[in-house]
Amino acid sequence: MGTTADLDRATGLGQTNEPDGTTGPVRAHAPGQPAEQEPEGTDLAAEHLLRIINDAGAGILLSIGYQSGLLDTMGALPPASTQQIADAAGLDERYVREIVHGLLSTGIVEAAGEGAFSLGPAYVPVVTGPGVDNLARMTRYLTLMGEVTPKVVEAVRHGGGLGYEDYPGFHRIQAEESAAVNDASLLSEIIPLTGEVGRLEAGIDVADIGCGQGHAVSLLARAFPASRFVGLDFSPEAIGEARAEAAAWGLGNAKFELADVAELSDESAFDLVTAFDAIHDQARPADVLAAVRRALRPGGTFLMVDIRASSVPAENAELPWAAFLYAISTVHCMSVSLGQGGAGLGTVWGVQRAERMLREAGFGDVELKDLDGDPFNAYVVARP
Ligand SMILES: C[S@@+](CC[C@H](N)C(=O)[O-])C[C@H]1O[C@@H](n2cnc3c(N)ncnc32)[C@H](O)[C@@H]1O
């Protein structure tokens, strides 16, 4: 818990009479020591900090509410008591009550009469459902970050990084996050950005590097039966899941291989290479981009989907989720790269640096495209 001085500062209760007769804030000081004048704006800074701490608390409640199914249940119920909500969700009432009361304080939950609660109508689309609009899904990263924080603090002290195995459930969470986007728009909006739909229908060779659990590959293989697809990843767990989905779908034109894509030795083997959120956490990103360039046939296309941000840190102050990106980077993306002795590009490497690295890898034609409804990602279409 914070100190009394923290609370006093944020609530204005710590104001004292100054020697000149004015009233001003004082820095907390030891008994018997003279009070020190605080820099201007310290009250506002303290308020800001308390808002951050409070919002972080709301993020944790949302993550638990999402993962336990509480939010989806509330979205489907009329105003209800915490006992009715708990019964409908199959959850423990005491926990439900605590979470509902916490979210009530944020405005995400509304009180509807004596002892009855519901999600605020405007929040229903953004905290429930399987689609891309459900932002509560992203709060799982907050709680995942908490699990590995002690190891990250050690890395901050001594250098080095973490391994993918340090993040329990990472591949599943990542796969669910990207499946929501890909189910909604891979075929209808993302792939058309490459200009390759016609050739995919006719039959070409496609590789997806850092494919994770491979859902994008399976969606493409099902949609374009004349083309041949390979998903590459160095995680046995992810490749196992990818193979299972392709088998369950009966796909004969999709295969998945365990491979370090920095070591990719294929030359002129593919007409289209895709990388979904799989370059910035590479240990050797420059080698991977050069390998992709070599693996493309003449006239081939590389679609690189990666985080949309600026390579100029000050410019990211404009980005409403920049701090979240830097947190993910510190705790995961940069850290797993450093853990392999890698470059540690970081999640926020930015589109300017991405373009420069693509050109250095031999891509002469680099286009940055937007996708309506996905402000988080940059869609880069590159050709040799
Ligand atoms: C952030 S995940 C993205 C996964 C997937 N493309 C998606 O959008 O859900 C990055 C993936 O790259 C894989 N990866 C990282 N470095 C790799 C390397 N050198 N070779 C192969 N896979 C790699 C990781 O195992 C992980 O599955």
From TrEMBL:
Domain S-adenosylmethionine-dependent methyltransferase Rv2258c-like winged HTH: 57-111
Entry annotated with the keyword Methyltransferase: yes
Name of the protein in question: Class I SAM-dependent methyltransferase
EC number: 2.1.-.-
GO biological process: methylation
Domain Methyltransferase: 201-315
Region (Disordered): 1-41
Source organism of the structure: Sinomonas halotolerans
A GO MF label: methyltransferase activity
Gene3D superfamilies: Vaccinia Virus protein VP39, Winged helix-like DNA-binding domain superfamily/Winged helix DNA-binding domain
Keyword Protein transport set for record: no
InterPro entries: Methyltranfer_dom, SAM-binding_MTase, SAM-dependent_MTases_sf, WH-like_DNA-bd_sf, WH_DNA-bd_sf, WHD_Rv2258c
Keyword field: Methyltransferase, Transferase
